[in-house]
Amino acid sequence: MSFFVGLVVGIVVGLALIVVFVRSENARSKLRTDLAATVAAFARMTVEDSRHLLAPEYYPSWVVFSQRQKVCVCIAQLNWLNSHLTKIWPYVNEAASELIKSSVEPTLEQYRPIILSSLKFSKFTLGTVAPQFTGVSILESDSSGITMELEMNWDGNPNIVLDVKTRLGVSLPVQVKDIGFTGVFRLIFRPLVEELPCFGAVCYSLRQKKKFDFKLKVIGGDITSIPGLSGALEDTIHNAIEDSITWPVRKIVPILPGDYSDLELKPSGTLEVKLVQAKGLTNKDFIGKSDPYAELYIRPLRDRTKTSKIISNDLNPIWNEHYEFVVEDASTQHLYVKIYDDEGLQASELLGCAQVQLSELEPGKVKDVWLKLVKDLDVQRDTKYRGEVHLELLYCPYGMENSFTNPFAKKVEMTTLERVLKSSGNGIADAAQTEREVSQKKREVIVRGVLSVTVISAEDLPVVDLMGKADPFVVLTMKKSDTKNKTRVVNENLNPEWNQTFDFVVEDALHDMLIAEVYDHDTFRKEYIGRCILTLTRVILEGEYRECFPLDGAKSGRLNLSLKWVPQPIYRDSQ
């Protein structure tokens, strides 16, 4: 009897164990399946999915979701990299010194100041102190290549001596010492290939120059013995580095045989600039006022730097000059403007400088900007007022729209703005006839038409009379033709209304401007209150607009104007 009881109990227990084991295996199998599905889901997860899962405050400090996905390289790894660089630095120094010398010397010669007849290296070594890498990041890239950025800090002890020869026959050995540099280098590995080292070429460039300090010393003499030499050499070195290696300029090192012309720097568009005016410039002259002129450039090459005419004895100069620049990378490049005081035979003195990021410009749209001048673009906190400069900017990428296509033959040279206006004008001859005419004579567009100006009103004019009022009137002047019109006088009113319209026949609108000056009428004289200066670019492109303009030179006050343009395009022959 006990045998049968034990047999039954054993069978029951065995069956129970089998059931438990099967259920356990099924549960484990389900867990493995769910885990595999979870891992696959994480593998497919994008940055946007991560943002939806967790708020940014839950991520570690080194995780940054931006346009660039930064790679956290721990301190130990950077120390390892820097320690090995220090070990091999004597060999790197020997190889790199000769390479840098041979590549930089032609660039220095290209930027050589006019006062020098020769500028070469007599000694060049990078010294015994190796640079230190302080950060690494990988930019988002496609399957065709990888872009890496390395942040580097170098306080070196190089032995760099320049052999400087002036046009007076004086030869000076100038030592470059106490170099301190911090910057970010960009490395592009492209294209990716299937054979080692898995990329065809490397492009390198200085993406960002955070700090670059150095001192110049004449060996056995004083560099200040030749006026202007120190400043000229410093500008030459900065400009040479700025244009020879700073992004978007890049150096290409082929690793595997192939055609890498697609990696070279290529123009991407044009920037049309109108230098209108400046105001409130600093007076640097002891007698009279400064004689300002402007230099404008995107890259500081001599043949790409534009220089305005000199306006003598004026702290509020009006230039109204057109320039056109080639743009290679609108996302990173800037337009630089520097205002100088002309000193005749002596070196010009910088009054102030400013810059515009081309990425802020909307392609095909004119942007009117006033830029505050600073002493140095690298100095962030410059609170002193040094004046302002007025620009009109138009960026046109290549192949943007048909409206920017030159309707003439390729031999005809017109600015981008002239092409826009010419394409949108009426009464243009057909293409065949135009081509035949162009083959005979080179022609360029003159934007001619009638400008109607309505002086509507003024607001909040400053008190001029002793009785606490003013008797204002407005004088309108076309600068190029000096044609003038004036409104009636409104007595004893700081918010006068005129609603008077005046027509001006403008022969060359792209190079003319309207000056509206507000005066206070007195019995024996008129007293100047303020003015506003308008180019005709906007009214030509828009046809008609109305706006309230602040009065320059006045403590307060605004002038309401309405402008309308009726085009009458004509052509002129040029040699």
UniProtKB/TrEMBL annotation:
The listed locations are:
Membrane
Chief localization: membrane
Q: Which domain of life is it from?
A: Eukaryota
Q: Does the keyword RNA-binding apply?
A: no
Q: How does it sit in the bilayer? A: Single-pass membrane protein
> What PANTHER family does UniProt report for this protein, alphabetically?
EXTENDED SYNAPTOTAGMIN-RELATED, SYNAPTOTAGMIN-5
Task: Tell me its family.
Answer: Belongs to the synaptotagmin family.
Physiological role: May be involved in membrane trafficking.
* InterPro entries given in the database record: C2_dom (IPR000008), C2_domain_sf (IPR035892), SMP_LBD (IPR031468), Synaptotagmin_plant (IPR045050), Synaptotagmin_SMP (IPR039010)
**Domain SMP-LTD: start-end pairs:** 74-256
Q: Give the UniProt entry's GO cellular component terms.
A: endoplasmic reticulum; membrane
TM region(s), chain numbering: 6-22
Q: Where is the C2 domain?
A: 250-371, 432-549
Which keywords describe this protein according to UniProt? Calcium, Lipid transport, Lipid-binding, Membrane, Metal-binding, Repeat, Transmembrane, Transmembrane helix, Transport
- Molecular-function annotations in GO: lipid binding; metal ion binding
Designated name of the protein: Synaptotagmin-5-like
GO annotation, biological process: lipid transport
Is the keyword NAD in the record?
A: no
Which Pfam families does the UniProt entry name for this protein? C2, SMP_LBD
